[in-house]
Amino acid sequence: RAKELGRDGIAIFTPEMTATVRRKLSRTDELRQALLRDEFVLHYQPQVDVQTGSIVAAEALVRWNHPGEGLVYPGDFIALAEETGHIVPIGEWVLQRACKQAKAWQDHGLPPIRICVNVSARQFQEKRLIETVANALSESGLDPTWLELEITESLIMKDLASSIARMHELEQLGVKLAVDDFGTGYSSLSALKRFPLSRLKIDRSFIADIPHDADDMAITAAIISLAQKLDLEVIAEGVETKEQARFLVDSGCNEIQGYLYSRPVEEERFHCMLENNGRIHPLLPL
Ligand code: C2E
Ligand code: MG
Ligand code: MG
Ligand code: MG
User: Fold this and answer.
1) Which of 11, 15, 230, 282 has a CA-to-CA distance to 51 between 20 and 30 Å?
2) What is the per-residue pLDDT across 185-242, written as a single tens digit (0 to 9) for each?
């Protein structure tokens, strides 16, 4: 025990802390084994073009199929994985799996869509990210233009200079970059111009209270027009109601993601949605 604790960098702890620390250690151990045991799965959530009602992209979202607990959501393990470094191999698995899946859908003759993959802070800082992305692309045979990496705004701003350098390296691979949870961080607007970005993803927290919160509506509309002026694509996440979709469309946002269209679903279910793509318009008329 003491040795394990030492390795975890924890030297002093009170008896009350022991239970917490022990739980965390066993969780960490489970996390490490989860990859070897192939317990992670990806669910896919559609991103939809509001004008046509067609799915234009899928965000890959990881879940942990825990042997005793059932499906565990990222909110319950990503932070620990980030802290312990397990996020790096997990993130590699996610990239490989997502690229293979996107290519498999294309090979089935389904209309090609973007595949969007979340990249964590730790993963983004790792030198081998570039190699990991390149490998995921070459092993799957997926054309890089179909892969979009989602990076949070707060991550980018943490070390602006090195973030920009890393983003340029990724751009060289031909992949697209999106800023996730946009509006929650502290981007200097002038810095935005220097990023090789394709898209801003407006954070869910600004969408949730539309049409009741005038401030959120003003901020959302401002982000959309900022994106347009900087020649960036813009998407809103967490869209749950037709009123929200209506407001977004009227403000010039052309893509949305959220429960209104679909929750994240398993691969087979997403395949079916793609087979009917463009023929079912659950959004229309708004
Ligand atoms: P995110 O990247 O901002 O992903 C969107 C989250 O919002 C997802 O939660 C999704 O299920 C949820 N969501 C989508 N539409 C709606 C809606 O209309 N209403 C509400 N209330 N929620 C909606 P999820 O899957 O639990 O993921 C949470 C976060 O965990 C993600 O936020 C992302 O930051 C992280 N995450 C997920 N998968 C990965 C991954 O493979 N790697 C890394 N590093 N992080 C991941
Ligand atoms: Mg995301
Ligand atoms: Mg987000
Ligand atoms: Mg979010």
Assistant:
1) 230
2) 777 777 788 899 999 999 999 999 999 999 999 999 999 999 999 999 999 999 999 9
Query: What is the Å distance from ligand 2's center to 59 Cα?
Result: 7
Q: What is the pTM of this model?
A: 0.93
Residue nearest (by alpha carbon) to ligand 1 atom 27: 74
60 CA distance to ligand 1 centroid (A)? Answer: 9
Pocket test for ligand 1, best of 237, 241, 256 (most atoms within 8 A of CB): 237
CA-atom Rg of the chain in angstroms: 20
> Residue 157 has what pLDDT?
85
How many residues are present in the chain? 286
Token look-up 């233009």 returns 145
Residue 3, pLDDT score: 44
The ligand 1 site (C-beta within 6 Å) comprises 45, 61-62, 73-75, 78, 87, 91, 94, 118, 120, 150, 180-181, 204, 237-240, 257-259, 264
Average pLDDT over residues 118-133: 95
Question: Using H for helix, E for strand and C for coil, what is the string for 71-113?
Answer: EECHHHCHHHHHHHCCHHHHHHHHHHHHHHHHHHHHHCCCCCC
Provide the b/e sequence for 162-201 (b: ≥16 CB within 10 Å). Answer: ebeebbeebbeeebbbbbbbbbebebeeeebeebebbbbb
N-to-C CA span, the chain: 59
pLDDT value for 158: 87
**Nearest-angstrom CA–CA distance, 239 and 198:** 21
Cα distance between residue 180 and residue 14, in whole Å: 39
pLDDT band at 5 (very low <50, low <70, confident <90, very high): low
CA 152 to ligand 1: nearest atom: 34
